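ARCHIVE CARD
Drawer: 12
Card no.: 0347
Subject: one protein chain, sequence and derived structure
Cross-reference: see card 0346
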Amino acid sequence: HYKTQWGQFLVLTTNLKDAAEIPLTHNKNGHWTGTLERPQLPPNFSYNYELRDANGTLRAEQDYARTLPSVKGKDIRLNDAWRAAESPETALYASAFEDVLFQPNTASKASNPRRSKGKVKVHFQTLQVRVPQGTTLGIAGNTASTGDWGKNGVLPLGSDHFPLWHTAINAAPGTELSYKYVLLNSKTQEITAWETGDNRSLSVPTTGDTFVQTDTNLRLFDQPWKGSGVALPVFSLRTAKSSGCGEFSDLRGLVDWAKQLGMQMVQILPVNDTVAKKNWVDSYPYAAISVFALHPMYLCIHELETVINAPALKKRREELNASPTVDYEAVMEHKVSYARKVYNKVRKEWVVSKGFQQFFRENKHWLRPYAAFCYLRDQYGTANFNEWKTHQVYDEKEVEKLTDPKSKAYVDIAFHYYLQYHLDKQLASAADYARSQGIVLKGDIAIGILRDSADAWTEPHLYNMDGQAGAPPDDFAKEGQNWGFPTYRWDVMAEDGYQWWRNRFTQLSRYFDAFRIDHILGFFRIWETPIEQMEGIMGRFNPAIPIRETEFHARGIYFDEARFCLPFITWGIAEQIFGEHASYVIEHFCEPFYDRLQLREEFKTQRQLAEALTDEQQHLKKGLFDLVSNMLFFKVEDEHGAGFHPRISLRDTWSFRVLDNHLQDQIQAIHDDYFYRRQDDFWREQGMTKLPAIKAATNMLICGEDLGMVPDCVPPVMKELGILTLEIQRMAKNPKTPFLHVNDIPYWSVCSPSTHDMEPIRLWWEVMEPHRRQAFYNNELGWWGEAPAECPPELAEAILRMHLGWPTMWTVFPIQDLLAMDGKLRHPDPHFERINIPANIPHYWNYRLHLSVEELQNAEYFNQRLGFMLRQAGRSEH
């Protein structure tokens, strides 16, 4: 049953090569039917439904494949119901729930009575992940075979194909069955919960020998499932065994603490290798040199094959652990040099071991070029492969020679194999431990890659090296953000079905059952700054539909390209920016241009300026950058000719301010239409082309970081695809509310008081504008009086309680925000707790939790209090 609109139709898709698609026919009352004829069904037969129109697929039902376990017969009738992706229950089909939180301890087999003559074999089946431990599913109905409404027991369902539950009975043709699903105590088989609402019913068909009734939306729970978690970068962990920063093995302790509280999730930042410059700048976790390789800083050297000079090793560990923050360079030097010593000692035995050989076979596609890249980086002292003396252009045959075991370089190259082998082993072990404890480990996938990376070296055709990914201006970065990453050539990636992305997601699923897509808006459109500019404010959205000159004419605007598309510079503007230095700037950097000025040819771009300025001229840099960005439109040539893209926030430019009021109104209208209306359908198409293909590669629970300038098309696409949104209290997506309002929070979301890019609660409270702080205190918290300038523990606790009570599926707290409610445990200085400042590039990512995991586990009063709060909110497993 599915109600379509005119021009729409349903198709059944299967995994059969000779019957991959079966068109369905519309009958009365919105029912669609179809027939498949063949000698027999293969045991692995699966199928799904899609809604289409003349332009292709509009939507597919929730993407868990339908199967028919133990169903046999000559004439099988199926009665299915459409599985809506946006249904609250469908999110639970991700591996986070299926394999971790609700995986049955033991699988039970379904009853499968022998076929009786003159009877129809009726199969019941339903997808249901949310079955609490210690319970199982059953059916209670109006017939003897279904227990006479519980008087004579119930009909138990089997979970041997979990999350599909199924069973079967024999029934006479034409029998009217009424029934409900029930929860049973696994041991006593007593009913613990009945489905609410009306009875389910079916009429046993009078034709056919087998009937399969597939039910959806079981009404066994009053409220949708809700969970909680803690967020902390791995490098910020502190344990007695770690060496100056958190390690993969330290995750076990954090998992134990989360379980102790009743939480269900531990969330971390990206953990890929970022070693490019070999200094603290590499601490930026979103600038990976490989989207597959793991960072050596997370290696637990104590778990390697042997221990060398134990007293010295212990002393160095204690020295590094004494540091309040992560000393990135010291930690890297210690771990890599020590691992090299162990490698040299065990190399000959290790390289022929079964464990390594299997690891190499499974990861060769990325491991070999990555190791070659690292070797060449070290040989030439730079990750910029354009500056290497050899191998500037990736050649697979040459790399095979370089990485051949007979090569002189092999010993050095295999060391990178060695590091990755142990890093993979340690992270996979920590992930398996988390699963065994019922804790979902949530990873993070960066939207970009480093320009000087193994990925860019090996597959340059996938990236636009003349573009720089970033973000438009916001409250965190007034001039926008320029991350420096090359942008993607999505048209090229589409040629093989986005295999590069699919490989990334598959690799992640080895370690994680949930992950956060950094800047998911980039799958709809990316903010791209040309390589010749430096500030993000000089960027534009790509792809985007440009404005044509005829559109200016239609608004009565005389289009002066030199006036609109070049920096507008006058003596007066120079004086406003540079004050007493205006004459110097005009003399050294400018030249006459009609009745105004222009920058000289050698200073026309921000990058030219950045490279040309002397130390004595650095104080002029920001003002000169502002001159370059003082323009209204960017001109871009495409196959249709010249197109124009408005500079974002053009109202703030001097170029805009000197226009007459009418022209200002017209240009502002063009700007607003371009950014908020013009692109919406186009961007929806972009997202619906990329995300479904990529999402199909994994069954992990996906959360999209959708903060910032969010197009209207994004929320419905994410909802349709079952991708959770990110909701941050201080960043309301509804422009009518200053803070996130409970009525605007979707269930399909993860909410948090802050992220790694923001001030934690205490610091946010202190730096907030006084009027905004007062409004939050009175209106959001509902507290009387004057708001305090600092955040006391009880205020932080009140904010946490607000989050716990919201309707969101997940509430995940940065650990700093949790500690904020305890005056004894939290750090004395709230400034110390900030992880990243987006406007500060490069930023040193060296935050380290001042408490050890062991101290957290032993904080009895705090843990009892927090655990009680989680239980009160229905977000605890206890």
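Annotation on reverse: The chain is about 30% helix and 20% strand. The CA atoms of residues 473 and 480 lie 4 Å apart.
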